[in-house]
Every structure is written in C-alpha cells, then in structure tokens.
C-alpha cells in the first residue's frame, strides 16, 4: 500500500503489525497437521492526510469472497437495526414506496427483505456465489458479481436508476473504492442516495477494538476520509449518523455533488468530533498500539491463570474478529476447549491458526463450562441476556474489550 485509496496521499504512520496471520474466515477441516495453512501479513497504517486507517497488504478478493462462510446475523439486535435503516431512508429522506433499492454486498438478502416488506423493488449484488444462491432461493434477486463500473452499467440498462444504493458493512472490504464510487456516480439520479454503513474509527480507537482488524477489512473510516474520497468522484456526503451496532458504526448518505440533497449539519459535527477525538494526531494511534499490547497480555494471562486453577473455558461465537483476537493473543486448544457458534457451516470445523474446534450451542450445553470468552462481543448484551441461566448457575463471561473483564455469576 503506497497511495491512500481515499485521498491519494502517500504519507503514512505505522500503527500495529500482527505479522503473518491466517485469513479470519478460512475455517479448516480437522487434520493431524496444519503445516501448509496459508498466512498473510496483517498490519495497519494511517494516512496522515485524511486519516484513513488501512491494511498494508491486500489479499486477492477472489480468494476471500467467491465462497464465503459469513451470513447476515438473525439476532434481534440486527433485525431491529435493519428496520431502523429502512425507517431512516423512508422517513428522513422520503424514499417512496415502489422505489428501486440496490444493495452492494447484499449477502443472503436479509436487509433487502425489509425493504421489500416496505413496498420497495430490490436487487442485490454479492460476489459470493454460494451466498447469492441462498438469496435467490429466498426470493431476493441477487447477481453473483463484484460491483464495478461495468456492473453499474448492466444494472442501469436492465433495471433502471435506483432511488437508493445501499452498502452495509461492505465498503471496508473493497480495495478499488474509486471504481465503486465511479459506478455509484453513474447510477445515481439527482435525488438518489448512496447509503453506506461502516465501522467507525473513533469507536474502534476509543474502545480498543483491534480484533476488528483482519484481511477482509481493508479500510477503517472516519467521516472525514469518506468526504475526501467522494469529493474526488463528483459525489458529496449529505448526512451521517452515529450508531451503536457492531461496536460503533456510522451510516453515511452520499448524493451527487450537484444533486438536490442539502448537506445536513451532522456531517461537519462528526468531522469536528473526529478532530476532538485526536484522529489527526499521531499520538492517538501510538496509544492505540500500546493498548493492543496491554490487552493481549492481560487477556492471555487471565485465561491461562483460570486454566491453571482447573477452570473449563470455551469461546462464545466463532466470528472473524474472534480469530484475530485468538491468533494475536496466541490462545490455542491448550486454553479454550472449543468455540460454540450457531452458524451450521462452521460447526465441525476448526478455527484458522488456533485450530480450536467449533461446535453447536446444543453441544455446548452438554459441557460444564465455567467461563466463556465472549468472542462475539458485538452481540454481548443480547447474548448475556440469553444466557441468564448459565450465569445464574455460576457461569461467567470474559469480555475482551475495552479492557479484559469478567461478567460475574448471577449478573
């Protein structure tokens, strides 16, 4: 990575380097040896011009996404949030019933289904062929393609101009953001909107969410870096909203630079917040790196001290972020007996790098586990409420961030 994909600058600050790490979603069949497991550099740098935080190494998207194990969560937290996204688009921006809504990185179509229920005409685009097949079987028309200028031309010719283009937690996965911005510009009408939801860099740094760094996440955004990108492509950020979902996100709305949508005060307010939060200061990223080192040391020491006391520990969830956390900390099968996850595709496999087995929640209930390391912490409140009986019976959760802590029995 030499030139910033957002603003074109070449002045970088090194932030953290985790060394060679397996791909976070490259689950493996159990085997006697994993000597040939691929590993790729995992390090992040910060652009001193626009303060995009970015990976230094880009893995071929054909390797990452053509067959993809992640499916959109059906948790109540996410269902509620998807409803909020529809409400904002309809009520704040006046997207009328019957409008054409296009989603980039639409996965199994759960978000598009909520737009269908609101009376919208929808189309999804997702490069994962296995995921696109599931979406189409669910009645959510989905093209198994990467989004580009060519894809945009196909959509416009075949389906018309979208009133809304949506990209929820997909923009951070894209290396060639210029091509996406150009394709979006070609598709937008004067009052159309491009809405993107991305993890918020302010929250990531303040809450020490270093486990959200993995090879799929190429970019870590503030509003300022997004403004810099879209200005280069004839687009303008017209509104932005801070969200609590996924550990802190922003929902950013973009229109044509000469379009009819006015720019809301929230845009400058969030840029000012980023300045107050130190996003443009080297010291902020230096502190983040120090916190990463402290947290990995504290968490590993906590887990191993509990194991030394004879406590049984497992992981709750097997998300991509959990694999970063475990690999960076060096936590293995000597520390966690297994991870439980509701995703059937992952069950029976082992985690990349650490080779911890993944089992179903039903299996987990047969085990007398004392502590669960909450790897899916972005659903923490919902999980802890769901597992009230585990806590009431003396079980405990270990939370990894913002600093390692224990949710006590009976909480």
UniProtKB/TrEMBL annotation:
Keyword Transferase annotated: yes
Source organism (scientific name): Streptomyces bauhiniae
Domain Methyltransferase putative zinc binding: 4-65
Pfam families, per the entry: Methyltransf_13 (PF08421), Methyltransf_14 (PF08484), Methyltransf_23 (PF13489)
Biological process per Gene Ontology, one example term: antibiotic biosynthetic process
Residue span(s) of domain C-methyltransferase: 245-402
UniProt cross-references to InterPro entries, sorted A to Z: Methyltransf_Zn-bd_dom_put, Methyltransf_Zn-bd_dom_put_sf, MeTrfase_14, SAM-dependent_MTases_sf
Name this protein carries in UniProt: Class I SAM-dependent methyltransferase
Keywords: Methyltransferase, Transferase
SUPFAM superfamilies (UniProt xref): S-adenosyl-L-methionine-dependent methyltransferases
